[in-house]
């Protein structure tokens, strides 16, 4: 499911087909909160669901984590030798140093400093490979804005919701960071409400709010990005977002509707928890003789 489909389904669940008590921006924020909860759960389960690798330049012992790095896992230098994490951080940086600032066993160690890391050898410069758990990009949806066209989708930057005027008012939900949506898949619906484009975003320009895609959308087409989390989690996050909307202070709470959604959420959660408990199907675990 893409974000547009998820928001549309949430509106069915909360009994509000058009924005009244719940704006589309507020529902989108709840959907992203639900997505983040599942991402945290996945990060603590077997399977390396969110693991990726990237090259990082280290100069004079200092390197910066990629902007989408949530938790570093493992890194190695250009020769394939591991660089281990120094337990205790900078407080222990002198403990393993030997002659000329190198560790006694001639291996490299590093410790984390906020969004950077420091190798325990001040002269170390190299392009290393880092494996890490990625931070999941937030979802977005809206009407394609003026400026969309060949290979370009301009996100809905308006902050006022007026569906009749082709804006969902989700502009405040955009992440204006270059390359933030790179690698995210987006679905686009034409003026007849038919999904006719599905493309991976290859570049995101924060200054213009334009995503580079394959296809030719036009202004007023509806778009929705797709979560990078497993498809099996999409319904779960939708039910979770609906519950957060139904219990919003000041809402006209329908207890029966809330009970129904909570029941569906618990069932979906159990199925998802069972599904993620093992990455490889038991039938694939064939022993060696």
Could you give the topology of this structure?
Elements: H1 3-14, H2 24-43, E1 51-58, E2 62-64, E3 69-76, E4 82-85, E5 108-113, E6 116-119, E7 126-134, E8 141-143, E9 152-154, E10 185-189, E11 195-200, E12 203-205, E13 210-212, E14 222-225, H3 234-246, H4 255-276
Parallel strand pairs: 4-5
Antiparallel strand pairs: 1-7, 2-6, 3-4, 3-7, 5-6, 8-14, 9-13, 10-11, 10-14, 12-13
The strand order across the widest sheet is 1-7-3-4-5-6-2
| Overall mean confidence score, pLDDT | 89
Radius of gyration from the CA trace?
23 Å
Major sheet: size, sense and barrel closure?
A: 7 strands, mixed
Task: Return residue spans where pLDDT drops below 50 for at least 5 consecutive residues.
Answer: 98-105, 284-289
Structural class by helix and strand composition? alpha+beta
In DSSP terms (H or I, runs of 4 or more residues), the helix count works out at: 4
- Give the terminus-to-terminus CA distance: 43 Å
Tally of distinct domains? 2
